[in-house]
Amino acid sequence: MVTTIKKKNQAAGSFREIDQTTNHTTILDGFTHNREHMSQSLTGSYEGQINQVSWTFDWIAPGRNIGVIRLFAAGLQADNDGTRLGDQTYTKELLINPTSESLTPSISGVLIFGKRLEVRGLNFDDGVKLFINGQKQKLAFLQDLPPVVLLVSEKAGKNIAPGQTVSIQVKNPDGKMSDPFIFMRPLE
Questions:
Q1: Rg (CA), the chain
Q2: Quick count: other Cβ atoms within 10 Å of Cβ 12?
Q3: How far apart, in Å, do the first and last CA atoms of the chain sit?
Q4: Over the range 50-80, which residues count as b (16 or more CB within 10 Å of their CB) and which as e?
Q5: Could you report the per-residue pLDDT of 96-144, keeping only the tens digit for each?
Q6: Are the CB atoms for 187 and 163 separated by under 8 Å?
Q7: Contact 53, 137 (CB under 8 A)
Q8: Sign (positive or negative) of CA dihedral 147, 64, 105, 163
Q9: Which pLDDT belongs to residue 185?
């Protein structure tokens, strides 16, 4: 079984199955903060196999620097005799340290729903600021949706009239600003 977490035991990134040998599970219990796990499937148990086996899956990193990520892996080597004799458990922890250099944010898309404005992109750091035509907007929240980050302003959409074209930018606390993203609000 494999899982990744960031500080405060919150999930970090997401997993994706690429064949029938693994299972992807998300636990929604409040304690694990919706942590995702990858584990072997019945097909991936390779009953009767001698020597080593391997499983392959994808891990999609968060779309922004969230600090150190801890990857935990545990495996069980078992002889399938129904007892613990001859079985071995192996565990490993790996720390993934992101670059200390802040990357320039980039916007990949904008959606608008009434007054709500959603900006998707990469490298949005905590404390990011949103600008429409150079005017700072109030933010509601920042959410990781690997491989992108979602930035939401519940009221910024009211500043863009139907058919109006605007320039949208985000600015990280270190001063790095995205290139302008030109957005035209659809006629409703």
A1: 22
A2: 25
A3: 48
A4: eeeeebebebebbbbbbeebebeeebeeeee
A5: 887 766 689 999 999 999 999 999 999 898 889 999 999 999 988 888 8
A6: yes
A7: no
A8: positive
A9: 95
